[in-house]
Amino acid sequence: MHNLHNCSLTAKNRGDKSPSVVDIRTVPGPFIFSMCKGIANTAMNAKIQEQIIRLKEENNAVILAHNYQLPEVQDIADFTGDSLELAREGARVPQQLVVFCGVHFMAETCAIFSPDKTVLLPDETSGCPMADMATGESLAALKAQHPGAVVVCYVNSTAEVKAQSDVCCTSAHAVDIIRRIEPGRPIIFVPDKYLGGYVSQLTGREMIYWEGACPIHATLRPAHVEAARAAHPGAPIFVHPESPLTVSALADEVLSTGQMCTRARQSDASTIVIGTELGLLHRLRKENPDKTFVPLSDDLVCPNMKRNTLPKVLHALTTLTPVIRVEETLARQAAHAIQTMFADGVIRPRNADAQPAQ
Length: 358
Ligand code: 13P
Ligand code: SF4
What we know:
This protein is of the alpha/beta class. The chain has four domains: 4-43, no CATH class; 50-128 and 307-319, NadA-like (Rossmann fold, 3-Layer(aba) Sandwich), CATH 3.40.50; 131-214 and 334-353, Rossmann fold; 217-301, Rossmann fold, CATH 3.40.50. The protein is 40% helix and 14% strand. The chain has helices at residues 29-58, 71-74, 83-92, 104-113, 136-145, 159-163, 174-179, 193-203, 222-231, 245-248, 257-266, 280-287, 310-319, 328-342, and strands at 9-10, 21-22, 61-66, 79-81, 97-101, 118-120, 150-154, 167-169, 187-190, 208-209, 237-239, 253-254, 271-275, 292-295. It has a four-stranded parallel β-sheet, sandwiched between helices. Helix 4 links the parallel strand 5 (97-101) and strand 6. Helix 3 runs parallel beside helix 4 (104-113) and helix 4 (104-113) crosses helix 14 (328-342). It binds 1,3-dihydroxyacetonephosphate (13P) and iron/sulfur cluster. Residues 67, 82-83, 156, 170-171, 214, 240, 242, 256-257 line the site of 1,3-dihydroxyacetonephosphate. 1,3-dihydroxyacetonephosphate binds at residues 67, 82-83, 156, 170-171, 214, 240, 242, 256-257.
């Protein structure tokens, strides 16, 4: 029988870097239990991961994962990235079957932009509460009040909202998109008021905002930044532009999750404070083992992003469900905003001839 008293816990098992050995008799019972459970989970995960990789090859599928996905899901993905990178990658990959580990709007954007591909979302219920804060109908009503305005939708939006929009943007290039809008045009920005406000500050373009925000990033406060500065003097603080403007104003850099990965790699700092969903820490630590990453707040967890568990990824590859389908006419209308985002040139409303710039 396995004798717990004969085993010693190395510090490495506990996740820290010192090489000391711990006397197991001094370790509290609940910790031993959770450690053993952890080992069992790791063995189970490895087994499921093996099956996923085999089925992925048999089905000639590709697995794309957002930077907030569970660590064990990120580890089996062919590509991990931010919304912009995933939208590009979904269209670029030769595979016809895409297992999209993210939230619903991401898989839907992939299905709209690559209508010839089959897109699976392992947990269909993984929505984005911010995306659901705007409906196509309510956006149409706002547009009617501002004829001639360019409608910019954050990619965190439904197909109905994209279908009502002139261009889409992600946090990685929202500033570039706003700079492409014809001068003199009013701009409606939907649904993230914080991203819109941040981009407005950088571009000097006024906007009509939607009253939407990410419930996770919206919990950040200037006090989090002040506490991190005091606890980690000299460490750069990165925050996501979905954060309140009072927080972005105090940060050293305001970046998409993909940009955070790039800047962390380039940075000479040994410690970096990260103001976004905690899932990104897995990738940052994996890619930069010599650096320390500290969360700006321990509460930054998006439960929807954690719904795509390994068993669900395996189930998706076994049953080839759930497929994300977008009705054809709606998909065609929504594709316009995504195609305009990836094109060059000045952005005007779709029916610009009828509504000249002011
Ligand atoms: P990124 O595009 O920066 O990965 O952000 C997506 C998102 O949902 C942030 O909450
Ligand atoms: Fe939506 Fe916020 Fe979750 Fe991103 S972190 S998917 S914006 S709820």
